[in-house]
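Hello,

I think I submitted the carboxymethyldethia coenzyme *A job twice by accident. Can you confirm which output corresponds to this input? Input:
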Amino acid sequence: MNISHIEHIGIAVKDLASAIPYYEEVLGLKCYNIEEVAEQKVKTAFFKVGETKIELLEPTSEESTVAKFIEKKGEGVHHIAFHVDGVAKALEECESKGIQLIDKAPRKGAEGLRIAFLHPKSTAGVLTELCEE
Ligand code: CMX
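Support: Only one job matched these inputs. Its output is below.
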C-alpha cells in the first residue's frame, strides 16, 4: 500500500475542555475544529502539526470504545492513522497478509475522511487507522 504520511494521532482524553489548554497554551497549537462523531460516540478536537494532526477523543457515552479504553489504560495515545491512496485496496492487502480487520470496508469518519481500522491484536499492539479524503 502507498502510505504518504501520518494523517493523525488519536489521543483519548476524559474531557476536551481540560485537555485543549495544554495543546493551545503550552504547545502553542490552535484547535481548528471540534466535531462530534455520533456513530463512534466521541467528540473530537483537531490541531495541525505540519502535515499531521492531533485528534483528541472525548467519549460521549459510557459505551464508547474510547470510554472503555480510558477505564482500562487511562488517558493517552489511542491510535495512529496513516494516509493511504486507497483504503479499500489497502484493506484487501492487509487481509491477504493475515491482518485482522475491524472494518471490512471504508466508512465515513471525522473531517469527512474515508476510514477503516485494523485490530491492535494483529498490528503489534497499536490500533491502526487507514484513511483518505
Ligand atoms: N490500542 C491498543 N490496544 C487496544 C486498544 C487501543 N486503542 N483498545 C483496546 N485494545 C486492546 C485491549 O487492551 C484488549 O487487550 P487484552 O485482551 O490484552 O486485554 C483488547 O484490545 C480488546 O479490548 P477490549 O477492551 O475488550 O475492547 P474491544 O475488543 O471491545 O474493542 C477495538 C477494541 C480496538 C476492537 C475497538 O476499540 C474498536 O473497534 N476500535 C475502532 C473504532 C474506534 O476506536 N473508534 C474511536 C475513534 C473514532 C475516531 O477516530 O473518529
